[in-house]
């Protein structure tokens, strides 16, 4: 049996931009992507703590060290700059493997920077 489990999570990151007139996606600081083991074009779920919206999109690399978290395209209508969101990725794996899998969890500071 194969099940879908939490692979990575960037917890409580702040939206820095919302660009409606863009092709679509979420742009994430490459430092945060690396820390969370998330790659460009990976499907992610976004959970908006401010308004309860939950939606899916894909990741675009943002400038390393910039702290950028930008919702693009139609997703920009589901956030406001300053909103706190959770970015979640999932993986399919064998049931037995999943029992021992440890997801990557990232808890950035209020400026979307990694905490040492």
From TrEMBL:
CDD domains: Asp_decarbox
Pathway: Cofactor biosynthesis; (R)-pantothenate biosynthesis; beta-alanine from L-aspartate: step 1/1
Positions bound to substrate: 57, 73-75
Any Pfam family: Asp_decarbox
Recorded GO MF terms: aspartate 1-decarboxylase activity
Lineage: Bacteria, Pseudomonadati, Bacteroidota, Sphingobacteriia, Sphingobacteriales
HAMAP family: PanD
GO biological process, one term: alanine biosynthetic process
Cofactor: pyruvate
InterPro entries, alphabetized: Asp_de-COase-like_dom_sf (IPR009010), Asp_decarbox (IPR003190)
Reactions catalysed according to its record: L-aspartate + H(+) = beta-alanine + CO2
Modified residues (Pyruvic acid (Ser)): 25
The protein's name in its UniProt record: Aspartate 1-decarboxylase
Processing after translation: Is synthesized initially as an inactive proenzyme, which is activated by self-cleavage at a specific serine bond to produce a beta-subunit with a hydroxyl group at its C-terminus and an alpha-subunit with a pyruvoyl group at its N-terminus.
Enzyme Commission identifier(s): 4.1.1.11
Top-rank lineage group of the source organism: Bacteria
Active-site residues, record numbering mapped to chain: 25, 58
Entry's cofactor comment: Binds 1 pyruvoyl group covalently per subunit.
Compartments where found: Cytoplasm
Top EC group: lyase
Species name: Parapedobacter pyrenivorans
